[in-house]
Amino acid sequence: MKKLSDWEKKTGIDFLKKIGIKKSYKVLDFGCNNGNYTIPISTLVEKGGIVFAIDENKSALNELQKKSKLIKSDNIKIIHTNGELYYNIADDFFDFVMFYDVLHYLKLQQRTILYKEIFRVLKSNAILSVHPKHIIGNFPLNELQNVKLDELISEIEDVGFKYNEKICSELSHDNHLENGCIINFVKQY
Length: 189
Ligand SMILES: C[S@@+](CC[C@H](N)C(=O)[O-])C[C@H]1O[C@@H](n2cnc3c(N)ncnc32)[C@H](O)[C@@H]1O
Known about the structure:
It is globular and about 40 Å long. By secondary structure, it is α/β, with parallel strands linked by helices. α2 (about 10-20) packs across α3 (about 40-45). The protein has a seven-stranded mixed sheet, sandwiched between helices. It is built from six helices and seven strands. The protein has helices at about 5-10, 10-20, 40-45, 60-70, 110-120, 150-155, and strands at about 25-30, 50-55, 75-80, 95-100, 120-130, 160-175, 175-185. The model has no long low-confidence stretch (mean pLDDT about 95). Helices cover about 30% and strands about 30% of the residues. The protein has a single domain (about 5-185), classed as Vaccinia Virus protein VP39 (Rossmann fold, 3-Layer(aba) Sandwich), CATH 3.40.50. The chain binds S-adenosylmethionine (SAM). S-adenosylmethionine binds near residues 37, 55, 56 and 101.
C-alpha cells in the first residue's frame, strides 16, 4: 500500500499543482493539523514562497514543526490560534487558500465569518480550495451533516466567491490516502 510520506513527495505535489498552487505562491492552509498538505505545499512553493499553517491544535502543530525540521523547510509559518477567525494579515496577501476537511468544525455563522475574512486576505482572481468532507453523501459529520454540496457551494458564493471547478484525485485524509474531490472558487471583483 502506498504510504503518505511517498504521497507528500510525488502524487501530493502533482495534485497541488493541478489545483493551482505554483512556485513562489503565498498559501494559507487553514486547519492544517499535522501538515499533510502543508509539507508538500512547502516543497512546491520553494524558497520564494511561503505557507501559513493555522491550527488550534497545539500538539498537531508540534508534529508539523518536527516534520518541517526533518525536510529542512524554512518557508512554513506555523500559527497556533484559539480558534479565532480574524487574522492580523494584510488585505490581498495570499495567492491561494485551502480549507481541507475542516469546515465541519464550524457553524454556518462561523463559516460565514471565515469566508469573508479569507475573501479579504486573498488576492483578486486567487483561488479558495475546499475539500468538502463530511457533507451529505460523504461521511456526514458535525456542522456539515445536513448540508448538501450545492448548499455549501451557495454559502461560499454568497460572500462573493465564484465556483470554478471540481477536481478528483487521491487525497490525504486523516493520515491515510483515499480518492476524493475538492472544489475550487475564485475571488472575483
Ligand atoms: C480533520 S483536520 C484536517 C487537517 C488537514 N486540513 C487535512 O486535510 O489533512 C481539521 C483541523 O482543523 C482544525 N480546526 C478546526 N477549527 C479550527 C479553527 N477555528 N481554527 C483553527 N483550526 C481549526 C482542527 O484543530 C484540526 O486540526
